[in-house]
Design goal:
This protein folds into 2 domains: 193 residues, Orthogonal Bundle (Cytochrome Bc1 Complex, Chain D, domain 2); 143 residues, Cytochrome Bc1 Complex, Chain D, domain 2 (Orthogonal Bundle), CATH 1.10.760.10. 36% of the residues lie in helices and 2% in strands. The protein has a two-stranded antiparallel ribbon. It has a two-stranded antiparallel sheet with strand order 3-4. The chain is globular. The relative contact order is 0.15.
Length: 352
């Protein structure tokens, strides 16, 4: 496993390439005959938060380029691993069935691939929050030894050998230059469009349907016992919390501590969104639980007390979240209403 210092050094090097490319590209004028790139306005419910994504406006050609790059194996050293390899649309863009995601040459990482959805509304990315900008997020998997194990000079060289990419970059940016800043921006623009907002729960919030008794009971239990962290339309407050998971010494992942080196952050991980949660097993940062039942059993009976345990999981002598078997069943019924079937089949997000 690489050290955090090594990873962040690689990220800083990549950002340096990014900045140099940005300066160069800003001085270019659009080539004659360049197609017009239309601005895209995304729609989402009024109970969603405001965009945090700053690389606007979103445009049709940049999004199309980003989508192609998202499924492009040439972004990896061996031309086989794309972003879509670990983020599969039909499973809410997770690596379904893999506790720990694996990348190039079947190398194993240390974390479960998180879902990609509603990213344009977030301000922190990765399980430890090390990335703050959506356009910069791809730097980590692209350069990580256990994921794509590549670098931007290699990627740029490979893409320049494909005439189609020269045309796509010209359509998106006014000329055919391929550079790191443009690659990252196009990927960011595509990921910003990946919005899940058509679940059964969304229909309920919009007054279009009525939940079943079990679903509604689960909703009430959820609001009482879970919604402080899994809050709002995104089902996350983006905080970092120690939930009483035992430290896996084999993976040696200390969560937020890897970023801050503050002992208070040991085993704190970012609160994930619960949208499409029924599709994204296994669960937790290391995929240790294979079912929603197992997750709820953990919170009711398996939380380990420790000095850094989140205060919300300790009430006097009680550690965890008291839940009866019926409450767990109703909670799962409610969590199933967060599945968005349109999202996982939308051709706007698919490779083909």
């Amino acid at each position: 496993m690489k050290s955090s210092a090594f990873i962040y050094k690689g990220i800083l090097w990549s950002i340096g390439v990014f900045c140099i490319s940005f300066v160069i590209s800003c001085n270019d004028e659009p080539e004659e005959g360049t197609p017009v790139d239309e601005v895209v306005t995304l729609s989402f419910p009024n109970y969603f938060p405001e965009f945090t994504y700053e690389s606007i406006p979103l445009t049709q050609n940049k999004i199309a380029l980003g989508k192609k790059l998202f499924y492009e194996g040439k972004l990896s050293r061996n031309n086989a691993i794309s972003c879509g390899f670990c983020h599969i649309q039909e499973f809410a863009f997770t690596h379904h069935g893999h506790s720990i995601s694996h990348g190039i040459d079947n190398r194993m990482g240390i974390r479960n691939a998180p879902a990609l959805q509603n990213l344009a509304f977030l301000s922190r990315f990765m399980w430890d929050g090390v990335i703050h900008e959506l356009d910069q997020q791809p730097i980590s998997p692209i350069t990580a030894h256990e994921e794509m194990d590549s670098n931007f000079p290699q990627i740029i060289q490979k893409l320049n050998e494909v005439e189609e990419y020269q045309d796509l970059f010209r359509s998106a940016y006014g000329d055919s230059e391929i550079n790191a800043e443009r690659i990252l921006n196009a990927l960011g623009q595509f990921m910003a469009t990946i919005i899940s907002d058509q679940s059964k729960y969304d229909q309920y919030l919009q007054g279009q349907i009525v939940l079943t008794d079990s679903e509604n009971n689960g909703r009430q239990i959820f609001e009482q016992k879970c919604s402080t962290c899994h809050t709002g339309a995104l089902q996350t407050d983006e905080s970092f919390r120690n939930t009483g998971l035992y430290f896996n010494s084999e993976l040696a992942d200390a969560g937020r501590y890897r970023v801050t080196l503050d002992s208070a952050d040991f085993m704190k991980f970012r609160v994930p969104s619960l949208r499409n949660i029924a599709l994204t097993s296994p669960y937790m940062h290391d995929g240790r639980f294979l079912s929603l039942e197992a997750v709820l059993n953990f919170y009711s009976d398996g939380v380990e007390d420790n000095p850094r345990l989140d205060p919300l999981l300790r009430n006097g002598e009680i550690v965890g979240i008291p839940l009866s078997n019926q409450e767990k069943q109703d909670l799962i019924s409610f969590l199933n209403t967060l599945t968005d079937d349109n999202f996982i089949t939308d051709p706007e997000y698919s490779e083909f």
